[in-house]
Design goal:
alpha/beta, six-stranded mixed β-sheet
Length: about 500
């Protein structure tokens, strides 16, 4: 019975197709005969070929606009930049994905198996980049992260089907499978068309002109289709790569939790600082400098100028913590280090503090030109940051204190316009900034001259403004720091909770 219904269905489709094609076929035959009888075949052929050539050129030009350079194999040449929030290792994985997408051939997305294999290649590329040297890098993720990835991809595909496919929000799975089975009808239609090409040879002139026009149109169509398929394949590989980077970096773990976890050191400092209660992990700002440079005075000046100043906290063993709410709404922990001195103990302490910080303010005196120790510490911090491929280097601001006692000492009447007339005092300040930029390898716009005189601080607003400007970058550093900490953070309380829940699940299933 079912076969009979299918035969009736196919017969009806065939009859409808013939009914639609017969008028068109008769017009083509009769029209060609009319052109032959009136001697217009040559004119019609020239017009048809001209229109085909113009269409072909227009299609080539349209598809050429804004196409990426497919012969390049680097992210710079393709114009696809990595996410600024990515770490060094994640950026390296993205460069490998871009190289893979540029090598993809359009034929690699013509079947379900090939699409699947291409996706697996993209995931393996990211896995090898994120976990080099690992024997089983492909499986270096947790089950909750895998579920979070499935949820994310499913949500994106659902939005695409509903918004980009006609009637996609109403199409059932059965209807989709039925349409998929009809894909062979395209090959049958091409065979029928080839038969028609043979039949129309009865009129050689018309057949020749039509063949030329159709070949040009087909060439343009196939070229455009190939470029479109290449774009789709590249987009597919890159989207798979982005998701895989999130998976293997640990971002899926944070996305599932919905909130950032707090590192133990931040939690301790926050408790001591009576810190903000509704922030999981604040931006940590390390304020360091040599003894007498003015780190404490700078923090006091910054806090006193804030809208929501919080009380200072008791010192920890080595560091003091201050909860500070910046004017842009960012809640931070400012960590005031003791004076950094030469020696392994002082160097190790500040390096450890920098490793747990997202932004560094280094305070140095403008009247002490010898900055060899400062240079050594900052170089060590940079090397330490560069060695952590799963993290980003922290932004560094240099604050030049004591500019009020630069020569001429008696000339102190702020404010000073550094871009205006070069008075002796302005010239001295500019010289110190230039020297510090060279000595410490810091850009001039990140070197801020201040005076921290008691009750008469000057140019602290410039420090505050630069902090606000650097908050996006500091937040990126913070995110990667939290991700790295979340990978190894397993508390005894959480393990015990998991054991209790497992016991409850077993007990429930046994009933």
């Amino acid at each position: 019975m079912r076969q009979k219904r299918q035969a009736i269905f196919y017969f009806r489709v065939a009859m409808a197709s013939i009914a639609l094609l017969l008028p068109l076929l008769s017009l083509m035959v009769l029209g060609s005969l009319w052109l032959w009888q009136h001697g217009y075949v040559l004119y019609w052929a020239l017009a048809a070929c001209s229109i085909a050539l113009v269409t072909y050129a227009a299609e080539r030009w349209i598809f050429r606009v804004d196409l990426p350079e497919t012969t390049a194999t680097s992210a710079e040449n393709t114009g696809v930049e990595s996410d600024p929030a990515w770490s060094i290792r994640e950026a390296s994985a993205w460069a490998a994905i871009v190289d893979l997408s540029n090598q993809v051939r359009p034929l690699e997305i013509t079947s379900r198996d090939e699409i699947f294999d291409l996706g697996v290649r993209a995931i393996e590329t990211v896995a090898r980049s994120m976990h080099p040297g690992e024997d089983h890098a492909l499986w270096k993720f947790t089950l909750p992260e895998a579920f979070a990835l499935i949820e994310r991809v499913s949500s994106q595909l659902s939005a695409f089907v509903s918004g980009s496919i006609p009637l996609g929000d109403r199409m059932t799975v059965g209807q989709f499978l039925r349409l998929y089975r009809w894909r062979s009808a395209i090959n049958a239609a091409e065979q029928v068309y080839d038969l028609w090409r043979i039949v129309r040879l009865m009129n050689p002139a018309a057949a020749a002109t039509q063949e030329i026009r159709e070949q040009l149109t087909r060439r343009a169509y196939e070229w455009g289709r190939e470029e479109l398929a290449k774009r789709l394949a590249q987009a597919y590989v890159r989207e798979i790569g982005r998701a895989a980077i999130d998976l293997y970096s640990g971002r899926m773990r944070l996305a599932k939790g919905g909130m950032l976890q707090t590192t133990a050191s931040s939690a301790t400092l926050r408790e001591r600082a009576s810190a903000v209660k509704d922030v999981e992990e604040p931006v940590r700002i390390l304020v360091a400098g040599q003894p007498g440079s003015g780190t404490t005075s700078l923090i006091d000046a910054l806090r006193n100028g804030m809208r929501a100043a919080l009380d200072a906290v008791a010192e920890t063993k080595d560091y003091s913590a201050y909860a500070v709410d910046l004017e842009d709404g960012t809640e931070t922990l400012m960590i005031n280090s003791p004076g950094v001195t030469a020696g392994k103990h002082g160097m190790d302490a500040v390096l450890e503090a920098a490793d747990h910080s997202d932004l560094i303010i280094w305070v140095t005196s403008a009247i002490h030109p010898e900055r060899e120790i400062v240079k050594q510490v900052l170089d060590q911090i940079r090397r330490q940051a560069a060695s952590r491929v799963s993290r980003k280097p922290q932004p560094i601001i240099c604050v030049l204190s004591h500019i009020d006692v630069l020569r001429p000492i008696e000339d102190w009447s702020p404010p000073y316009n550094m871009a205006g007339t070069a008075t002796p005092k302005v010239a001295s300040i500019k010289n110190v900034i230039s020297a510090a930029a060279v000595d410490l390898n810091i850009a001039k716009n990140d070197i801020i001259p201040v005076s921290l005189r008691a009750g008469a601080a000057y140019n602290v607003d410039a420090v505050r403004q630069r902090l606000i400007e650097l908050m996006p970058e500091a937040n990126r550093v913070r995110l990667l720091r939290v991700i790295e900490g979340a990978k190894t953070q397993t508390t005894l309380r959480r393990v015990w909770s998991q054991v209790i829940n497992a016991g409850r699940a077993i007990k429930g299933s046994a009933k």
